[in-house]
Amino acid sequence: SQPLCIGQKQKWFLLRLISNEQRVRMDLTGKPEFDGWRWVSYWYPLGQVVTFKREVYRRALKELAPRLLSRD
């Protein structure tokens, strides 16, 4: 079968934060991985990603959504 895309492969993870969100720190190293970050709504990235990646983001978010909504 044909690959869905050519280029960089991505792995998506859905994690549940079980601590206070104020404890999340991205600036505790001399060379932080990210210049900036923020909490956003679940579907927000879909409108921000470059157009050619939008469909793959939509499918990933749609597949992960039921797990996010479950409370187990």
Structural class: mainly alpha
**How many helix segments?**
2
Radius of gyration over C-alpha positions, nearest whole angstrom: 15 Å
Helix fraction, binned, reads 25-40%
Shape: extended
The whole-number mean of residue pLDDT values reads 84
Order of helices and strands: HH
Characterization of the model:
One of its GO terms (molecular function) is hydrolase activity. The protein has a domain at 39-72. Helices cover 29% and strands 0% of the residues. It is built from 2 helices and no strands. It has helices at residues 44-48, 54-69. The longest helix has 16 residues, at 54-69. It is extended and about 45 Å long.
Name some characteristics of this structure:
mainly alpha, 29% helix, 72 residues
Compact overview of the structure:
The chain is mainly alpha-helical and 72 residues long. It has a domain at 39-72. It is 29% helix and 0% strand.
Provide the fold topology.
Elements: H1 44-48, H2 54-69
